[in-house]
Structure to design on (376 residues):
């Protein structure tokens, strides 16, 4: 894998690009969305379901798997791929965002983060070195440096200190990393401050990683701020490495990011929304639990070719959700992930045809016509 990532084509009208990322468990077409499988499972989906919706790579989480069932047990049982029976590529988030979300249950020092488990209150110390060792034991194809993710409300001095700490932690991650087929990505921090983002990018790139991620987005900032950071950072990132934006997931946000030349994305939005009855369609978002669908015999999305839309009515999906049936989570999740991965496929096709800006305009105009959530 001397050439792990290759840019295959760039749209003639913007920075959007097609790429290929090679891993030990398969080749990934980019731009791509990664379904989130925090606990070694994408909620309500089997690995066979994930293949059916065209998932190419999934995400699992270091923090959660460290606490339960434990990375050493997963390693003993043959690694994460064998453990969960998913034989495609896996990316593991280092746990920085999960530690951030613990709030008062954690204390950050130069050494690492001491935190209380959300499961049983037990005390743990997560260091950059331990985060790498855990991910190596899990056997993920792409692993992430441990970082500090500051909240959107943090002041400039806090974000500056956080950015500097993230750089030092990245150096420690690189020092202990053993490149036995795994790829290590560095994470760029700096909040909404362009000068800190620029400094972080320069420092993280100077350490040298297989790919680069923007962290610290979708943490409470306005969309305009998020988009401004995306636009500012993209030209500063290496052209020949994959670019990953962590944690963004609204379809319009993915389209915006792809237009700036980003390659990889993950978010719980499609799966979490599915379990809450909020479904993505070509006609806008649908709140399937609404009464207006009680007698609606039409397909969830007449323009969608997924298994759910071919076989079940809106009335039936509403009934399952209202009755609290487990099948509701499965069918809703299946559809939402199909929608997301089909959206990524359509973006790749538009880039290949040098028509991404036209695709973007058409998609956003269509969504604007259906901006009110149906049944909301």
């Amino acid at each position: 894998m001397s050439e792990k990532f290759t840019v295959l084509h760039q749209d003639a009208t913007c920075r959007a690009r097609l790429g290929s990322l090679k891993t030990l468990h398969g080749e990934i077409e980019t731009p791509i969305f990664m379904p989130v499988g925090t606990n070694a499972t994408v909620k309500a989906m089997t690995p066979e379901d994930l293949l059916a919706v065209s998932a190419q790579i999934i995400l699992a989480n270091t923090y959660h798997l460290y606490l339960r069932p434990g990375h050493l047990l997963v390693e003993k049982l043959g690694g994460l791929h064998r453990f969960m029976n998913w034989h495609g590529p896996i990316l593991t988030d280092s746990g920085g965002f999960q530690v951030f979300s613990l709030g008062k249950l954690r204390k950050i020092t130069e050494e690492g983060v001491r935190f209380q488990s959300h499961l049983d209150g037990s005390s743990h110390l997560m260091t950059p070195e331990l985060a790498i060792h855990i991910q190596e034991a899990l056997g993920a194809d792409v692993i992430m440096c441990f970082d500090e993710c500051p909240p959107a409300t943090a002041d400039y001095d806090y974000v500056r200190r956080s950015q500097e700490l993230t750089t030092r932690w990245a150096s420690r991650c690189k020092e202990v990393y053993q490149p036995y087929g795994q790829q290590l990505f560095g994470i760029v921090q700096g909040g909404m401050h362009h000068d800190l983002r620029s400094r972080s990018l320069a420092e993280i790139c100077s350490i040298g990683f297989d790919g680069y991620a923007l962290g610290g987005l979708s943490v409470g900032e306005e969309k305009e701020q998020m988009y401004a950071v995306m636009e500012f950072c993209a030209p500063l990132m290496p052209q020949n490495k994959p670019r990953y934006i962590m944690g963004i997931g609204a379809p319009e946000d993915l389209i915006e990011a792809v237009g700036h030349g980003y390659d990889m994305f993950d978010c719980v939005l499609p799966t979490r929304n599915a379990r809450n009855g909020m479904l993505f369609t070509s006609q806008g978002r649908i709140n399937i639990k609404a009464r207006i669908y009680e007698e609606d015999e039409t397909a969830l999305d007449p323009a969608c070719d997924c298994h759910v839309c071919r076989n079940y009515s809106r009335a039936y999906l509403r009934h399952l959700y209202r009755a609290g049936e487990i099948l509701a989570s499965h069918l809703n999740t299946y559809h939402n992930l199909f929608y997301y991965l089909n959206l990524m496929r359509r973006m790749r096709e538009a880039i290949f045809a040098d028509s991404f800006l036209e695709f973007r305009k058409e998609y956003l105009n269509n969504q604007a016509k259906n901006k009110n959530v149906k049944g909301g």
About this structure: The mean pLDDT is 95. The first strand starts at residue 5 and ends at 10.
